[in-house]
């Protein structure tokens, strides 16, 4: 078990399977909110669905529409289970808030390097804690 300590952005506690992106994620034009799938053509996870997964990524890129696209995933039932990101920005923080899933950032270790796709992860947005169960 590995514990990462950081700052909670959105409260709540969930446990689920991690989906790790080593690249930033674009909201507008980078995801399909109807399916919860990354559609950015040159992205390492193009064609991969994040619905119901703990989405671990470096941060958001692109326009201010990022949060709107992730809010749509909540409304359509295709949102990730939680978000863990390395770099907090207004896009990623607002996106996590409107998606209403537990979110943690500013961790003491880089989650993109520590967590692997398929790991079982607990995200505790109340305490700013991410626990990796291998």
Describe this structure as you would to a colleague:
Pfam families: AcnX_swivel_put (PF01989). One of its GO terms (molecular function) is lyase activity. This is Putative aconitase subunit 2. This protein is of the alpha/beta class. The protein has one domain (2-133): Glucose Oxidase, domain 1. Helix content is 19%, strand content 34%. The chain is built from 3 helices and 12 strands; from the N terminus they run ββββββββαβαβαββ. Strands 1-12-11-3-7-9-10-2 form an 8-stranded mixed sheet. A two-stranded parallel ribbon has the order 4-8. A two-stranded antiparallel sheet has the order 5-6. A hairpin with a 4-residue loop joins strand 11 and strand 12. The protein is globular and about 35 Å long. The mean pLDDT is 94.
Per-chain topology:
Elements: E1 2-5, E2 7-10, E3 13-20, E4 25-26, E5 31-32, E6 37-38, E7 54-57, E8 60-61, H1 66-76, E9 82-85, H2 90-99, E10 103-105, H3 111-114, E11 120-124, E12 129-133
Parallel strand pairs: 3-7, 4-8, 7-9, 9-10
Antiparallel strand pairs: 1-12, 2-10, 3-11, 5-6, 11-12
């Amino acid at each position: 078990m590995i514990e990462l300590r950081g700052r909670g952005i959105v409260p709540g506690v969930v446990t689920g399977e991690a989906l790790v992106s080593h690249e930033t994620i674009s909201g507008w034009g980078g995801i399909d909110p109807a399916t919860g799938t990354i559609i950015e053509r040159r992205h390492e996870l193009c064609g991969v669905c994040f619905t119901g997964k703990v989405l671990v990524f470096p941060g958001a890129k692109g326009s201010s529409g990022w949060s709107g696209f992730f809010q749509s995933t909540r409304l359509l039932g295709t949102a990730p289970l939680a978000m863990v990101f390395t770099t907090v920005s207004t896009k990623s923080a607002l996106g996590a808030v409107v998606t209403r899933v537990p979110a943690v950032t500013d961790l003491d270790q880089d989650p993109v390097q520590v967590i692997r796709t398929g790991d079982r992860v607990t995200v505790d947005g109340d305490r700013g804690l991410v626990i990796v169960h291998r």
